[in-house]
Design goal:
This protein is an alpha+beta fold. It is built from ten helices and 15 strands. 28% of the residues lie in helices and 17% in strands. The strands form five sheets. A four-stranded antiparallel sheet has the order 1-6-7-8. Strands 14-2-15 form a three-stranded antiparallel sheet. The longest helix is centred in the N-terminal third of the chain and has 19 residues.
């Protein structure tokens, strides 16, 4: 059973360089109706393949003014996720920050859906989850980690919010499944954890891990971030506008065998090419800029003190492929859906969902008549 603090396997994927084949265009109403029929069929047949609890509500086991531990009671993931996010927002309004973790939950969809709930309250939202083991650790041979998504949403003017929603594997599992040539996706680190403790994230205040590790003495989990001078080129960019922006997290364990993550978020550490997850390092770097630069009222991006000239317009690598921030691809995709009059789903996905529907007696199934090419 997953311990969840947000979750799902939906990543903020940049779809450059993909070769996924034909897709089906399906209207949003057809998708919604199909999902409703599947849920009704499962409910009326008392289908308990996963032994999910169908009644009840999550329970708060422990709480303080700003934190809470929730027992999901083996309910559907979205029930637990919405409960936890609502509680976190309530605590944040009262205490300035809300941090809620849960156990006894299930897969709850897209991590970003829960993080984005904070935007309506003009707050920053975060959502994570651990998943079934699908990722091979560095130097490993066997899957022992989940794709473990991270999502963070920060409000901005005119709806131009920053929304990071990404798997922590170099590529999302779905990309490896859908592509005609999985080995092409896996070259250079696909489905291998991004980062690791090879990068120490040293900057103006020294080693980020030094500060995170101070929490270990108190048997607590410690986290430490900072933004740095611009040394990193964003995805599609040509000029340094982000720092290496280290992230550190330390968690205590028995016999001093503590977990200590201390890594730079630079693309060099996380995969240089878009296909291999370089934009994820870019997204994490932006997340640190939001927390340590913008939120704190300090300097950020190119405004951080540096020895290089920064008073010039960014020289983009390709003017036809503008530099994006997390949330931009999603907004563009929503515009595309509205323009096309439907949602493009890969044919393999539609066939898989229809097979699931057949097994529980759903009719009609999703249509496959409107084929389009990517």
């Amino acid at each position: 059973m997953n311990n969840v603090d947000g979750g799902a396997v939906q990543a903020t994927e940049n779809h450059e360089e993909r070769e996924l084949g034909p897709s089906c265009l399906i209207s949003p109403s057809e998708v919604s109706s199909f999902i409703e029929r599947c849920l009704m069929a499962v409910g009326t047949q008392a289908h308990h393949a996963h032994s999910l609890a169908q009644d009840g509500e999550p329970v708060v086991e422990k709480e303080t003014g700003a934190t809470a531990l929730v027992d999901g009671k083996n309910l559907l993931g979205p029930v637990v996720g919405n409960f936890c996010m609502a509680l976190a927002l309530k605590k944040a309004k009262e205490a300035g920050v809300g941090w809620v973790v849960a156990h006894g939950s299930n897969h709850y969809g897209i991590a970003g859906y829960y993080a984005m709930q904070a935007l309506k309250e003009n707050m920053i939202g975060m959502s994570f989850t651990n998943t079934s083991p699908l990722v091979v650790p560095t130097r490993g041979k066997e899957c022992t980690l989940g794709t473990n998504p991270i999502s963070m949403a920060a409000p901005a003017n005119d709806g131009d919010s920053f929304v990071l929603d990404m798997a922590t594997s170099a590529v999302a599992l779905g990309k490896g499944i859908l592509t005609p040539d999985p080995q092409k996706v896996l070259q250079g680190g696909g489905l291998v954890p991004i980062g690791g403790s090879e990068a120490t994230g040293s900057n103006h205040y020294g080693i980020a891990g030094y500060y995170a590790m101070q929490a270990l003495k108190e048997n607590m989990i410690g986290m430490s971030f900072t933004n740095t001078s611009p040394l990193v080129v964003p995805t599609r960019g040509k000029e340094c506008t982000l720092g290496t922006n280290p992230i550190s997290m330390a968690a205590p364990a028995n016999d001093g065998d503590s977990f200590v993550l201390d890594m730079a978020t630079s693309a060099v550490a996380l995969g240089k090419k878009v296909l291999q997850g370089g934009y994820k390092g870019y997204g994490l770097g932006m997340m640190v800029e939001v927390f340590c630069g913008i939120l704190s009222g300090a300097q950020y991006s190119k405004h951080v003190r540096t020895w290089k000239v920064t008073d010039r317009v960014a020289n983009l690598a390709n003017p036809d492929s503008p530099v994006l921030t997390a949330g931009d691809p999603e907004r563009a995709h929503l515009d595309k859906i509205e323009e096309m009059g439907g949602i493009p789903y890969h044919l393999n996905v539609v066939n898989f969902m229809n097979e699931c529907g057949k097994r529980v007696g759903v009719s009609p199934l999703l249509p496959c008549d409107k084929l389009i090419s990517d």
